[in-house]
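Researcher: I've got a protein sequence and the SMILES for zinc ion. Could you write out the 3D structure of the bound complex as structure tokens? I'd like something to compare against our soaking experiments later this week.
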Amino acid sequence: MSAREWGSVLLCPVCGAPLAQAAQTLRCAHAHSFDIAREGYVNLLLAERRPPAVRGDAREMVQARRRFLERGHYAPLSAALAAQVCALLTSRAARGTRPLHVLDVGCGEGHHLGEVQRHVAARLGSDAVQFWGMDSARDAVRLAARRHPDIRFFVADLRRCILLADGAVRVLLNVFAPRHPAEFARVVARDGALLVVIPAPEHLMPLRAELGMLEIETGKREHVIAQLAGAFRLASMQEISYDLSLGGEELRDLVAMTPSYWHLPPEALAALAGQQGVRVRVAFELLVFARYR
Ligand SMILES: C[S@@+](CC[C@H](N)C(=O)[O-])C[C@H]1O[C@@H](n2cnc3c(N)ncnc32)[C@H](O)[C@@H]1O
Ligand SMILES: [Zn+2]
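Model: Sure. Here is the predicted complex with zinc ion in place.
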């Protein structure tokens, strides 16, 4: 696979027709066109009369997440995702038309998707699968595109439309990110799968309680399963949990990369950087959903 040819799976955000690539531009049959940025991503957000001040994560959150994740603190999660995606793509159902498409919605700065892509390419070769990353935060997508030249990243708002063709996605990833069940159902292939990662109740304890960080909704897993029940059934669940001992900038980054960034006073965040040896529980639930046929 040559790096980032865009093909015709991506849809025009104005009219919904397929986008085709001509040099450094993507264009639909109705002449709506979108330039491919220097870093190699495409911005498909449309101008709004009253755009929100921030779309998705703020730049400081994105940078904190990049620093934190590249230190390998969530490596067990990336590895579990990679193993699940490899298994799903090599299953009997996944033989057939190539390439298969894998999309990460709310991909952030691309760490987990990058790890998944690396493992899948090593296992299946780089031509068999095309990887896509979508996020509404342009800063996140820009960082992601710079680091992962074999993945197609685009900026778009999940609340509106995922902008990939109906049934195109064999595996959809949704890691600590918002969900749009109707759009998930539209883009995932009939024999495809959806992997959702949510925090388990003890995630980031006891720090979460001590700092007054945003709480994890009670019964979150049941809520997610119910939310997706129209098109997806839970096929399996994997729990991943371990302790970290953190201090200094790492501790500050861990908190700054969560939505609590918006709620905690800057002094509270800054004070974290002065602490050392703070024990934090990390606990994820990886939910694997199969698409009803
Ligand atoms: C907690 S971060 C997780 C990022 C990444 N999945 C990871 O685990 O490293 C949530 C991500 O969802 C993105 N996001 C929030 N609202 C969104 C929307 N409406 N459309 C697309 N992405 C959105 C944020 O910009 C952010 O990158
Ligand atoms: Zn168009």
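Model: The pocket of S-adenosylmethionine (ligand 1) is lined by residues 56-57, 65, 106-108, 111-112, 135-137, 140, 157-159, 175-178 (CB under 6 Å). The radius of gyration is 19 Å.
Researcher: Great, I'll pass this along to the crystallography team.
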